[in-house]
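Journal club prep, shared notes

We agreed each person brings one worked example of a sequence with its structure written out as tokens. Mine is DUF8119 domain-containing protein. I'm keeping it raw so we can talk through how to read the token line rather than staring at a rendered picture. Sequence first:
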Amino acid sequence: MSNDPPRSSRPDRARPTFSAVTSGTLRVLGDVLVISLWVLFLTVLFLELGWPRWAFYGALLLGVGVYVSITSGWS
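Then the structure, token by token:
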């Protein structure tokens, strides 16, 4: 036997609302779209110009880092 109240009656755990789940899903999809477009742009650019692979990965990491630093404060 346990003295804990049933889970459904605990007030400290709020269930996520539909709008919160939708907002989070849209945010993830937006992030995936932006990063995918960045990768596509860099791939086409580097294949066209024949630049070295190490520069591609550096530009990729730099671009993703800048994107994350800009969007990290958004809620």
